[in-house]
């Protein structure tokens, strides 16, 4: 008997979860993107990248990330700068509440935490503008913790593969926690890339997806993806070179996708309102 439309399907079996994680990590080893913030575990640099990736595509973030860190190489340097100057350096990434929030975080950390970003979720969540996604990203990418992430890209991948339809955030967070392997850093980066490069919002690349036999949505999306693939000229390039869908910058449910620029946090309000820093790239 089919499950009730008001309830999500049962949690996936351990075998299905292991297959998902194993295949995703195998895909990431060959198709994952090389990005400058993935070559550091410095909490400040990770924080800068996460805030920049909100509502902004990766190719625009990379040069600005490098410029910003040349200007403000440490959290203390940022905290001691004038906020108007910080906004000027941020230009033209847009969503100009973000540099102000980043500056506020730097000043708070300098004043209350001795200039070091805290490594505990509860303390991170008390920083100005930091929400569950950003806290989880810092714990995973900077501090090496097993922390689940849920931004718009991750939500889309998990909904398509395991639910086949929209699912409540409570169910998605629970699933994200269950899926976490020991190698959480690589797994979380893999999920981000997979949502940005393969399981995109508007034109998913089902023809290049290693998860089709696990995916509840593939029977619906797969045929159209195969038709598109048959019409597209072969370019001989791997999945890592697939252009990022502009819909896959991290935005909230009402906007773009990988945070308010690209990693918008699950359940975030519309991007132009004042809000907590959310998760996203078009990663």
Multimerization status: single chain
Kindly, what is the distance between the CA atoms of the first and last residues, rounded to a whole number of angstroms? Answer: 39 Å
Number of strands: 0
β content, as a range? Answer: under 5%
Poorly predicted runs are: 233-249, 251-262, 264-282
Helix share of residues?
40-55%
Estimate the global geometry from the Cα principal axes.
Answer: globular
Structural class: mainly alpha
SSE ordering = HHHHHHHHHHHH
Counting DSSP H or I runs of 4 or more residues, the number of helices is 12
What's the mean pLDDT score? 83
Q: Tell me the Rg in angstroms.
A: 19 Å
Largest sheet: none
What do these coordinates show?
The relative contact order is 0.17. The N and C termini lie far apart (about 40 Å). This protein is mainly α and about 280 residues long. The chain contains 12 helices and no strands. α1 packs across α11.
Provide a short characterization of the protein structure.
Helices cover 48% and strands 0% of the residues.
Task: Show the helix and strand layout.
Elements: H1 14-31, H2 43-52, H3 58-71, H4 75-79, H5 83-90, H6 97-112, H7 121-125, H8 132-141, H9 152-163, H10 169-179, H11 184-197, H12 218-231
Helix pairs in contact: 1-11, 2-8, 9-11
Summary tags:
12 helices, disordered C terminus, 283 residues, mainly alpha
């Amino acid at each position: 008997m089919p499950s009730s439309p008001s309830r999500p399907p049962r949690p996936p079996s351990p075998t299905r979860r292991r297959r998902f994680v194993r295949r995703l990590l195998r895909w990431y080893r060959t198709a994952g993107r090389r990005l400058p913030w993935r070559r550091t575990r410095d909490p400040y640099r990770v924080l800068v990248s996460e805030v920049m990736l909100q509502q902004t595509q990766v190719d625009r973030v990379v040069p600005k990330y490098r410029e910003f860190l040349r200007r403000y190489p440490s959290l203390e340097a940022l905290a001691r700068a004038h906020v108007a100057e910080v906004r000027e350096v941020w230009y033209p990434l847009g969503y100009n509440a973000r540099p102000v929030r980043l500056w506020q975080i730097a000043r708070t950390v300098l004043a209350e935490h001795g200039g070091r970003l805290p490594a505990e979720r509860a303390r991170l969540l008390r920083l100005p503008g930091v929400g569950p996604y950003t806290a989880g990203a810092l714990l995973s990418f900077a501090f090496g913790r097993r922390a689940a992430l849920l931004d718009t890209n991750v939500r889309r991948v998990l909904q398509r593969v395991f639910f086949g339809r929209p699912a409540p955030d409570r169910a998605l967070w629970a699933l994200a926690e269950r899926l976490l392997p020991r190698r959480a850093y690589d797994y979380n980066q893999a999920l981000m890339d997979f949502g940005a490069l393969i399981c995109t919002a508007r034109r998913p690349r089902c023809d290049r997806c290693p998860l089709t036999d696990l995916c509840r949505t593939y029977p619906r999306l797969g045929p159209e993806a195969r038709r598109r693939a048959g019409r597209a000229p072969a370019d001989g390039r791997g999945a890592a070179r697939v252009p990022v869908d502009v819909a896959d910058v991290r935005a909230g449910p009402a906007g773009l996708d990988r945070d308010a620029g690209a990693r918008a946090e699950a359940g975030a309000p519309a991007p132009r309102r004042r809000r907590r820093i959310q998760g996203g790239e078009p990663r």
